[in-house]
Design a protein that fits this description.
By secondary structure, the protein is α/β, with parallel strands linked by helices. It is about 40% helix and about 20% strand. The strands form two sheets. The protein has a seven-stranded mixed sheet with strand order 5-4-3-6-7-9-8, sandwiched between helices. The protein has a two-stranded antiparallel sheet with strand order 1-2. Strand 8 and strand 9 form a beta hairpin.
């Protein structure tokens, strides 16, 4: 109802007996129809909030989750603790563009110069990210989105300060058990690698390894995945890493340290 009437909840409560007008009734019926068919609210409304910013979303991109804000927060803390005046960031998996755009706006507020390049294999996702990028103009640094498959990259041509990603980390088996509102509505390629859920994480580690002494990696992971990832890192001889927990104490972000 707040979305239909374009008002806040308090206004809704104060005007609870106000009758709907014709177009408002039609809008409400459309919203209800979509919801009853299992469509997520964010797709119905066409927008979602992330890190205090509003982003356009549709079925071409994953709906931003609150736990993904941990990546933005972690990168900002790293930049602040290192007293960086500039940072170069590579994001793998643009989606709606919410992570890179939120980082750019926050770095603008902090007076930190930046170059942010974000990659996604999906053309429609890149178009959505660019739409969101334009929505939040202007930027003081350089922000760009590119359609590219990370698995076509054998190695990075040069060092970046940060590699960040919210990759498709759900395994094929786990994907089949997801609620219908997620499995049937959000893009499969943004959720699962159709394998063991670790394909993208292995790739990210391989891109990070040549620069492990001077680059940091922040990557969102699935519930309980930290054990398998620890084994991967130990086998690769990685020693400088930790896991950032969410508000429930669940390890949610892998942090590989430079």
């Amino acid at each position: 109802m707040c979305e239909v009437l374009e008002c806040g909840r308090m206004d809704l409560y104060l005007n609870f007996d106000k009758p709907l007008q014709g177009q408002e009734t039609q809008k409400l019926e459309k919203f209800l129809s979509g919801r009853l068919s299992g469509e997520p609210l964010q797709y119905i409304f066409g927008h979602a909030n992330f890190f205090g910013y509003e982003f356009f979303v549709d079925s071409s991109v994953l709906i931003p989750r609150p736990e993904t804000e941990l990546i933005v927060d972690a990168v900002l803390k790293s930049i602040e603790s290192a007293h960086r005046k500039s940072a170069e960031i590579l994001e793998i998996g643009s989606g709606s563009g919410c992570i890179s755009i939120a980082l750019a706006k926050q770095l603008d507020d902090r007076g930190v110069d930046y170059i942010i390049n974000s990659l996604d294999v999906s053309g429609p996702a890149i178009e959505t990210a660019k739409k969101n990028m334009n929505r939040h103009l202007p930027y003081n640094g350089k922000l760009s989105f590119h359609q590219k498959d990370v698995f076509s990259i054998s190695s990075l041509k040069r060092r970046v300060d940060y590699i960040i990603s919210n990759p498709p980390y759900i395994s094929a088996d786990e994907y089949e058990r997801l609620p219908g509102i997620v499995k049937n509505r959000e893009p499969r390629t943004a959720l699962t690698d159709s394998a063991d859920g670790l394909s993208f994480i292995r790739k990210l580690i391989s891109l990070f390894t040549p620069f492990k002494n001077s680059t940091e990696l922040f990557c969102e992971i699935s519930f309980g995945q930290n054990i398998e990832i620890t084994n991967l890192l130990d086998s690769a001889g990685m020693e400088k890493y930790d896991f950032i927990a969410d508000l429930s104490g669940i390890p949610r972000v892998l942090h590989l340290k430079g």
